[in-house]
Amino acid sequence: MSHQPYSFFQSVERSFDKAANFTKWDKGILEQIKACNSIYSMRFPVKLDDGSIEVIEAYRVQHSQHKSPCKGGIRFSDEVNQDEVMALASLMTYKCAIVNVPFGGGKGGIKINPRNYSVYELEKITRRYTSELVKKNFIGPGIDVPAPDYGTGEREMAWIVDTYTSLKPGEIDAAGCVTGKPITQGGVRGRKEATGLGVFFGIREVCNMTDIMERQGLKPGIEGKTIVVQGLGNVGYHTAKFFREAGAKVVALAEYEGAIFNAEGLNEEEVFQHRKATGSILNFPGATNLEKNTDALELDCDILIPAALENVINKDNAPRVKAKIIGEAANGPCTPEADEEFARRNILCVPDMYLNAGGVTVSYFEWLKNLSHVRYGRMEKRFTENMNSHILGQIEELSGKEVSDKERKFIMHGPEEQDLVHSGLEETMITATREIMEIWKADPSIPDMRTAAYISAINKVATSYAELGIFP
Q1: pLDDT below 50 — which residues of the chain?
Q2: What is the pLDDT of residue 133?
Q3: Total count of domains within the chain
Q4: Quick one: pLDDT at residue 9?
Q5: By CB atoms within 10 Å of each CB, which of 18, 165, 288, 455 scores lowest?
Q6: Positive or negative, the Cα torsion across 420, 423, 427, 433?
């Protein structure tokens, strides 16, 4: 995240306080929402391949238990410390509340650079971390459910679920103790592209709002819009892909080695392959190289998607941003100073905490799948296909006309797991976008969409606390 984790936590608190002023909640409830409920900081020894022993520093923070279980990733990074993990855990609480995913926020971290360890050493560290969490009741399908984050992926999640299962023999819902698992271990199809697809669904919904588009001086819809994406990792790649497939033009892509521009549009897969072959996105056929990768942020475009690092748009370069809409696919790409500049210049910034919630939404679907012990679509796929086939046959018989092969295939198709996951994600992002926009429209003094999103989160969490009767 940030190299000054405390300032990152402070900017979360700053945004929270800004939004809290627009709510009616008691100061005590607001303090309770801000506070991290439980912080577990641990040190444990691991024997490395060369026989030496290293003491590993690790954390798990449960920010809020207004809903159970807690949910949030585990990151492996040199930068991990308690402050950063606390900040990320609190963001998870607000993120889940905004998109109506019934989890409290959590986050974990192990202070290591995974590149400095062998696979066997990483496995030992991950399994030991898991058993420390089990010992203190800090993990479980109904307690706290981790997921991948920086430096971790399916492999680490498989180690976690295996360790958990071996320590809790016979626990029927054990697979639900962690999400982001390989499909064979109870993972869900559609997880990989989830965040990028969520970003696309969120921005598409904003672009379908005629009044908002009018205010930004744009035509409604995605088609024909010019897009700049910073970051070609999993999130940036899929975001670019879904925008291109919807008829938008991705005119520039940026990575840390530089940026490329083509007014006619770029294909993310071709650029990805070019980078794989040459080690850089620069010198892509037909594209112009930009001096610095940050130049991409200042290009003339309709929609700018920062999908890489935090704090890339700050008080220095925000005045030079020309996009009409910014979609925060990364965590914290715009600083509070940048927010003020955008509000002044009527640039719409669609905030990270809800826009990149595709990952946790699909994690929720994976967790539900683990608790129900059945794959999505298994029960209804054939039924739907048989029914559609019957309806189609009746229509053709009554009208005496044949449906084209392409349409027939589309109408007949019964939902696979991935179709249902994508459809659930689409519903989630559309609903959340509308809820935030309604809050913003109801009070003209709310400065920006981020504040409206925080208000939505605060209201939902506070209502939960109030209804639980925690505050007499």
Answers
A1: 1-6, 472
A2: 97
A3: 2
A4: 74
A5: 288
A6: positive
Q: What number of H helices and E strands is found in the chain?
A: 16, 12
Instruction: Give residue 5's pLDDT.
Output: 38
CATH number at residue 273: 3.40.50.720
Question: Based on the domain organization, do 127 and 263 belong to the same domain?
Answer: no
Residues 140, 213, single domain; the answer is no
Q: What is the pLDDT of residue 155?
A: 96
CA 407 – CA 399 distance, rounded (Å): 16
Supply the range of the domain harboring residue 99: 34-185
Task: Note whether 187 and 180 are within 8 A (CB).
Answer: yes
- pLDDT for res 46: 97
Residue identified by tokens 């967790």 is 367
Whether 121 and 253 map to the same domain: the answer is no
Give, as one character, the DSSP assignment of residue 284.
-
